[in-house]
Design brief:
heterodimer; A: 273 residues; mainly alpha; 15 helices; globular; B: 317 residues; two-stranded antiparallel sheet; disordered N terminus
Chain lengths: 273, 317
């Protein structure tokens, strides 16, 4: 009896927070299945009268949504793959191989941690222009194939693995690459997963940069395509929400499947499970 | 695959030459290690280093050089010294964007922190339902910001949007939100709060769980009420987590762009023009001014990061 009011407040608040977080997502879904007349007709409706797949059909046929989807998958996939290879190699070198200049390289990489793309939009655009990469996949992929964040996270992880592992491998005659691939990596799935998931999510959602370097409609990624098509058809909320659902599905699905990895990445390892 | 299996064969199988002395064999392999160390080290960092130097570091340096020039990408590029900085710091629009960004940042930080702390405290008491709540509250964080911006633009829509429809149930007319000079900026900030508060709640929850139960038990014996316990135990013990959250929010809020562009493009008028929005609108027409604004933004972000590094190193020691 004495406990119930104490537990009521937290439960009540958690419900409020859950509704605040979930309702917009639910509303997006609901809108995408409603006919436009119902959305912007006379009077307002909270409960949909009828549901339809019309908006999805129209979005997929009237716009190169399929192509945008493929572009997003291609760009995000390439960036994730590049980071997994290059960040891992660099992190291994910085954690395990003593060489002249290592400290300098480490400092430089840590320094670039604080330079977000937003600050270098102008000069990076000029670099792409000079390379002739405007309106190509290269501009969307190559500058992001390695990242200080990934290197930092993986190096932090490698440092925690006992050096005895490497030494045992060396006694068995394994070279450095062999040691990395067959000894260290199998002990690093969590860290690699975190990097992959973070890179995928960030690249998938990227907007300012891809819309700056692509003019060709067929090269757009989903967020860019979605934002541009809003300008053409402002009041078509049914289409916009259907497009939004399609753009959100892959990351949401990945999140539901790999929740732990996402949470670990998003909180920067601040939360242990 | 062959190269990988070949590699170890290069190291002489010292076992057969055991008679010639293990010392010498040990020395050769040691010096070989050392001499290949530099090469292997540089090879391992080379690809990542090239990408980072070429596409982050070099552009950053370029940014500073461009900020002292006058250039519209087509005409000649001329050196004008500090003029671009004088222009942006003196004239209205950039100052407005700084003020807007500060207001946006303040609203986002306070809103996110209060919501996150309340959620973390509640979840800490009521762990049974915390899992479901975690899934729901973290979900917005993974949704692309452009999608979040569009969804909220629809929610804010004055005539048919959900928010005004709900307000209408009480017989009150809703506001014009994104079309209102005073409400547009807070309305845009709400999107950031909605998207991120679940993550920060988790970070704070981590901090809460590190506070030993004994302290609360002792406080209860001393007859301290829940509010007193919250003020005298929870908040002080949560200071490191709070500082981390605060600086992270500060850093991210200064970079705000995506949802602004999708929802208002900086309008109405300049009501939601933020620093990055300012840069974006001048990117290809006034390279010097856009670069100068970028450098100012960089200095701000750099300061935030340095404070952050100082705090974390103090915490570690």
């Amino acid at each position: 009896m004495s406990k119930s009011p104490k537990r009521l407040a937290p439960t009540l608040w958690l419900t409020v927070a859950g509704v605040f977080a979930g309702l917009p997502v639910l509303w997006m879904l609901l809108t995408s299945f409603q006919p436009l007349e119902e959305l912007v007709g006379n009077g307002r409706h909270l409960i949909p009268g009828s549901l339809t797949l019309g908006a999805y059909r129209e979005v997929l046929s009237a716009f190169p949504f399929g192509q945008w989807f493929v572009n997003s998958v291609l760009v995000a996939g390439a960036v994730v793959a590049g980071n997994l290879v290059f960040d891992t190699l660099a992190a291994y070198g910085l954690a395990r191989i003593p060489f002249r200049g290592r400290q300098a390289v480490l400092t430089l990489i840590l320094a670039t941690l604080m330079i977000p793309t937003q600050v270098i939009l102008v000069p990076l655009y000029l670099v792409m222009r000079d390379l002739g990469w405007i309106d190509t996949y290269w501009a969307l992929i190559i500058p992001f194939l390695a990242s200080p964040t990934g290197i930092f996270l993986l190096r932090q992880h490698f440092v925690t693995l006992p050096v005895q592992l490497d030494e045992a491998a060396a006694i068995d005659g394994a070279g450095r690459l062999r040691t990395l691939v067959s000894i260290l990596l199998p002990n690093s799935w969590a860290a690699l997963g975190t990097v992959a998931v973070l890179k995928f999510m960030w690249t998938w959602g990227e907007f300012a940069w891809p819309s700056l370097v692509t003019n060709n409609e067929m090269l757009r990624t989903l967020p860019v395509g979605l934002a541009q098509f809003q300008n053409q058809f402002a009041p078509r909320w049914d289409l916009l929400m259907a497009g939004s659902v399609l753009a959100a599905i892959p990351v949401v699905l990945a999140f539901v499947l790999l929740q732990r990895t996402f949470v670990r990445g998003l909180t920067g390892g601040a939360v242990k499970e | 695959m062959t190269t990988m299996t070949d590699l170890p064969a290069k190291h002489p199988p010292g076992g057969t030459a055991a008679g010639s002395g293990p010392d010498r064999a040990g020395q050769t392999s040691k010096s070989r290690r050392r001499s290949t160390g530099a090469l292997a080290g540089w090879l391992s960092v080379a690809p990542a280093l090239l990408v980072i130097l070429g596409f982050t570091f070099y552009p950053m340096v370029q940014s500073m050089l461009l900020s002292t020039d006058h250039w519209n990408l087509l005409g000649p590029r001329t050196f004008v010294g500090a003029e671009n900085y004088r222009t942006i710091l003196g004239a209205g629009t950039f100052r407005t964007s700084i003020v807007n960004t500060l207001v946006f940042t303040a609203i986002t930080i306070v809103g996110t922190y209060v919501l996150a702390l309340a959620t973390a405290t509640a979840a800490n008491r009521e762990l049974a339902s915390a899992r479901l709540v975690r899934t729901v509250t973290v979900l917005p964080a993974v949704i692309p910001m452009v999608v979040a911006g569009l969804v909220w633009k629809w929610l804010y829509e004055p005539d048919h949007g959900l928010i005004n429809t709900l307000i209408g149930l009480f017989g009150v007319d809703g506001a014009r939100w994104l079309f209102d000079n005073d409400l547009a900026l807070p309305a845009v900030a709400v999107v950031s709060i909605w998207k991120e508060f679940g993550i920060y709640a988790l970070i704070l929850l981590g901090g809460l769980q590190r506070i030993p139960d004994e302290i609360y038990e002792a406080a209860t014996i001393d007859r301290a009420g829940p509010w007193r316990q919250f003020r005298s135990i929870t908040l002080p013990m949560l200071k490191p987590a709070t500082a981390a959250v605060f600086l992270l929010l500060l850093f991210n809020s200064f970079k705000v762009f995506d949802q602004v562009w999708v929802m208002t493009e900086g309008g109405p008028g300049t009501a939601t023009l933020t620093v990055v929005t300012f840069i974006y609108t001048r990117l290809l027409t006034d390279v010097g001014v856009a670069s100068a604004a970028s450098v100012v933004l960089f200095v701000i972000l750099l300061t935030i990061t340095l404070v952050r590094l100082k705090l974390t190193s103090r915490e570690e020691s």
